[in-house]
Structure formats: C-alpha cells, structure tokens
Amino acid sequence: MLSVEKLEAEAERRRDRADYVERLLRGLGTPSLAGWSFTGEIRDAGVGSTALAEPPRCACGHPIRWLYIIQHPERGQTQLGSECINRLADMPHADEALVEALRQAVQRTEAQLREAEAAVRRAEREREVQDLAAQWAAICARALAEYERRAPTRSAPHALWLAVKSRRHRLPRVAPRYKRPADYIRWYRAQILAWREALGEA
C-alpha cells in the first residue's frame, strides 16, 4: 500500500474512532467513562430483537440484542452492546476495571451461546439417529417379511436372499455400538440403502 493510501486509511480510522467516541459520550451524557460501573446484569432482548421497529439500543445508538447494564450515580442506568464494549479502549481515560469487567461478561455470554448452540446441534443429531434407527428397523422388518412371504415359492429376488440368508452378504440385524452420533448416522444410512437395494427399491 502506498504511503498516501496508508495515511488516508489511518485518517479514516481516526475519524471513525472520533465519531464513535462522540456518539457514545452523547448517549451516556457524561464527558468520559468516569463514574460508570458495570452492574453485572445482562439482558437478552431475544432473537430478532434488532430487527424490531423499536429495537433496544446501545448507548452509542446501534441496535443490540444483548444488553450489558451500566450505571452512574447521577445519570442512572443505560446499556452497552458487545460491539461497543470491544471498542471501549478507544475511549479517552477509559476505566480499565470497567472495560475488563465488561469484556469478561461478553466472553462469558459468548461462551454460553456457543455451548447452547452445541447442545442444540447435539440434540438434532440425536433426533436424527433415533429417526434413522426407526427407519432401519422398519425396513429390516419389511424385508424379512417379504422374504418369508416369497420363500415357500422360492421367488425371492437374489439380492433379497443374499441380504437375509447369505453367510457372506447377510445384512446385520443388530446395530453396532458407537460413541459418536455421526458414526451411527453413517451406519444407519448405509444399511437403509442396502436394504432398499435388496428390496429392489433403490
């Protein structure tokens, strides 16, 4: 990048930082962060709250979902959003204790969100495993019933005979034990497809 471009980029960053500081201080109604403290309260306005006609807003003005409540002995309470908290170091004479307390709160909230999202994914995989297990059990039973129906007349398709009776190619009737849902999902999908092929449905 040319030196002129670097200077222009730095000037843009400075303007953005100055604009942010001005907006936040205007919202706080104080000349600095002095006197403000974190109450420890965090409010969740809910999914989609930032798209509401009147969304909750950070003191700097932008819509937020997560409200980190701060208070001042004269100005009362207001809230900050996580993006704003991550920029508090830009504030002149920023209170290090306040900034650190808010950043730690944001980190805890984000960690809890990641764990909640992981729990949702785990639950979804467990439901998928249960659904596939039910499908597998049903197609096994149907294939065995179809073989028994055709066995007396020896009219069962060769693929079905292999799946039901062949020592080398017989499909398993009991699912293996796995630790990971992903392994169950792969196994059930493969077995369902194999039974469908044996029935001539694939």
Notable traits:
54% helix, three-stranded antiparallel sheet, 5 helices, 202 residues, mainly alpha, 3 strands, elongated
Topology:
Blueprint: H1 3-28, E1 37-44, E2 66-72, E3 76-80, H2 82-85, H3 96-150, H4 158-164, H5 181-198
Antiparallel strand pairs: 1-2, 2-3
Notes on the structure:
The model has no long low-confidence stretch (mean pLDDT 91). Helices cover 54% and strands 10% of the residues. The relative contact order is 0.08. The chain is mainly alpha-helical. It has a 3-stranded antiparallel β-sheet with strand order 1-2-3. Helix 3 packs parallel to helix 5 and helix 4 crosses helix 5 (181-198). A hairpin with a 3-residue loop joins strand 2 and strand 3 (76-80). It has helices spanning 3-28, 82-85, 96-150, 158-164, 181-198; strands at 37-44, 66-72, 76-80. It has 2 domains: 3-94, no CATH class; 121-198. The chain starts with a helix and ends with a helix. The chain is elongated, with a radius of gyration of 31 Å. The chain has 5 helices and 3 strands.
Number of distinct beta strands: 3
Tell me the number of structural domains. Answer: 2
Fraction of residues in β-strands: 5-15%
Give the SSE order as H and E letters: HEEEHHHH
List the quaternary state of the chains. Answer: single chain
Helix count from the secondary structure assignment: 5
Task: State the strand order across the main sheet.
Answer: 1-2-3
Q: In terms of per-residue confidence, which ranges show pLDDT below 50 for 5 or more consecutive residues?
A: none
Calculate the terminal CA-CA distance, rounded to whole Å. 59 Å
Main sheet? 3 strands, antiparallel
Q: Whole-number average pLDDT?
A: 91
- Which word captures the global form? elongated
Helix content: 40-55%
What class would the helix/strand composition place it in? mainly alpha
Q: Radius of gyration, Cα only, in angstroms?
A: 31 Å
